[in-house]
From TrEMBL:
Residues 31-133 form the Heme NO-binding domain. GO terms for molecular function: heme binding. It comes from the Bacteria. It comes from Paracoccus lichenicola. This is Heme NO-binding domain-containing protein.
Amino acid sequence: MHDLVNRAIEKFLQEESVPGVEAGLLPPALMLQAAADQLGKPPDELIEDLGAWLVRQDEIWRLLRFCGSDFLDFLLRLDELPERIRLITDDVEVPEIALSRSADGLVWVTISDGSPVWTALLSGLLRAMADDYGTLCVITRSADGIAIDVSDAAFAEARTFRLSARAVPA
């Protein structure tokens, strides 16, 4: 697990031009803490940025977009994400994800181990995916999980999705 996670964090920090962090020499948590200190931001915000950055990686983006035709469909299938990730790699231990809807229409995402790291990462991923689908929503992290309040599911045009990068539009 550590090699895959380390490489992702190293690439993220390089692309985000975080100076002064000895990528690869520190464990992932210390690498992120050092980067957060360097940038003067809380570690959970940097981890949220990492989640959004992951969505910009084409292979990961395709895996995620394949999960739903629109943002709400994507959200309702989010509990399948750990198993989809296991299809690709068993090097990353992804906790189980549960979904619920409250009476006021909020979608709640909870993570089985309650990890603030996974909550922050998933929050960033959800923000990036909402933008990708053209959905206007408010995503709020709390100790109980992530609350998503979708205001406008068709706020902007969604990014075009094709299953293959080589697919040519008809």
